[in-house]
Design brief:
With about 200 residues, the protein is an alpha/beta fold. It has one domain. About 30% of the residues lie in helices and about 20% in strands. The chain contains six helices and seven strands, in the order αβββααβαβαββα. The chain has helices at about 30-40, 65-75, 80-85, 115-120, 140-155, 185-200, and strands at about 45, 50, 55-65, 100-110, 130-135, 160-165, 165-170. Strands 1, 2, 3, 4, 5, 6 and 7 form a seven-stranded mixed beta sheet that branches. A hairpin with a 2-residue loop joins β2 and β3 (about 55-65). It starts with about 30 loop residues before the first helix and ends with a helix.
Length: about 200
């Protein structure tokens, strides 16, 4: 007997479970991302999906009011030029660059297949919390039980399934004991992109 948290136990052998012929997401990506944020209990808001580092993801961010107010006073708008932002972590610029005005709470990937979702999150997993949203139609398949959940657990990625009738459910919580990479040129640039999106939202 195999169980998924929040779902009834599966009594069939996982290998005998059906594979869906057509896998579709039950709602637009941005709606599913927002619902997943609520299910995960993450603070902040899910920003509209965007392509970052070649992956389509939704950043979940919250505005830091004090830093934002300081940047307004100093006329420091978001800077999204990656080459420029990459210099901000150089030692000689310490204390001279704009403060981060948002906090990236996590990164979400909404995908029709868990492998695509996991691949989309790979560049971001070292920086903090990550989660993928997949259609509920794949939840009781052998591939999902035998491959998706163990791999997601190994990388600390939360898994949320989306059902057209019942909304979203948390199938696997993320691991919160990950050692993160800290602030580097990539994370600082992603932060600026998120800041720009928060201001334009």
């Amino acid at each position: 007997m195999t169980g998924i948290p929040g779902r009834m136990a599966v009594t069939q052998d996982a290998a005998s479970l059906p594979i869906p012929s057509a896998v579709e997401l039950p709602a637009p990506d941005d709606e599913l991302a927002s619902a997943a944020v609520a299910q995960l209990g993450w603070p902040g808001v899910a920003l509209p999906p965007m392509t970052l580092l070649g992956r389509r993801v939704s950043l979940v961010a919250e505005l830091l009011p004090d830093a934002h107010a300081e940047r307004i006073c100093l006329g420091q708008a978001p800077v999204t030029d990656r080459a420029t932002v990459s210099t901000w972590v150089w030692p000689e610029f310490a204390g001279q660059v704009p403060a981060a005005a948002v906090r990236i709470v996590g990164v979400l990937a909404v995908s029709r297949h868990w492998r695509t979702g996991l691949a989309a999150l790979a560049p971001f997993a070292r920086y903090g919390d990550t989660a993928m949203v997949v259609p509920s139609s794949v939840v009781l398949t052998h591939d999902y039980l035998a491959n998706c959940l163990p791999r997601a657990r190994n990388y600390g990625v939360a898994v949320v399934s989306a059902d057209p009738d019942n909304g979203v459910e948390l199938d696997l919580p993320g691991r919160n004991d990950k050692v993160t990479a800290g602030i580097d040129a990539v994370s600082r640039w992603v932060n600026e992109v998120a800041y720009e999106r928060v201001l334009s939202a």
